[in-house]
Specification:
This protein has a single domain, classed as Rossmann fold. 38% of the residues lie in helices and 18% in strands. The chain is built from six helices and seven strands. The protein has a seven-stranded parallel beta sheet, sandwiched between helices.
Length: 200
């Protein structure tokens, strides 16, 4: 029986999210079937492509208006629940607080661990409504089984802000697969500014 993991995203910009794409590719390379539950791509973005065929990407339409947005979030969770009932999952990962809320709820339903992968910090506290929203996020984040973030300083900050055990936060640096530099030097700036090859 194959191992399987569910990834949850929410912003509709997944095609430009190396941490999510790399996480999915890494887990698939480790033998997991990866199901990604996301909202429809935001304007100007496309559905991401993956190299590994063990990765599946499911979207739910999310309107931009506030009332429709809240109802559609419920629709996204229901769609994911229906799909997840067909298989046994080992754990779920939610990218950033909004997606983690979806992941955590379904993790509780299926009695599996829920990991929060923190990509950015969203902590508005300058109005009553935003303070209430933050309190809701904290409720879920403090109940994560584990957290993942991009560097040690972020991990320390998350531990302090969320009152979450530092020993349950892992650091996974944000980098891409493959070579970091092209195999040969580019002539772009030399050609653009007319710099001779023998000049340093």
């Amino acid at each position: 029986m194959n191992q399987r993991v569910a990834l949850f995203t929410y912003f509709g910009q997944d095609a430009a999210s190396p941490p999510m794409i790399n996480s999915a590719e890494y887990l698939a390379a480790e033998g997991y079937i990866v199901d990604i539950f996301a909202r429809n791509p935001a304007k100007g973005f496309i559905v991401p492509t993956f190299r590994n065929k063990a990765i599946r990407y499911y979207t739910t339409g999310i309107p931009l208006n506030r009332i429709g947005w809240r109802i559609a979030r419920i629709h996204l969770v229901v769609n994911a629940w229906q799909k997840m009932r067909e298989h046994r999952y080992d754990f779920v990962i939610g990218f950033d607080p909004w997606a983690f809320e979806h992941a955590w709820l379904l993790a509780k339903v299926f009695r599996i661990p829920a990991f929060h992968h923190s990509l950015e910090f969203f902590w508005p506290e300058n109005s009553l409504r935003k303070k209430i929203d933050l309190a809701g996020k904290m409720f879920f984040l403090q109940r994560a089984d584990w957290m993942i973030t991009q560097d040690a300083m972020r991990a320390d900050w998350l531990s302090n802000k969320c009152r979450f055990p530092r020993e349950k936060i892992s650091v996974v640096y944000n980098s891409s697969f493959g070579d970091l530099l092209p195999p040969r030097k580019s002539r772009y700036f030399r050609d653009k500014f007319g710099i001779a090859n023998d000049k340093q």
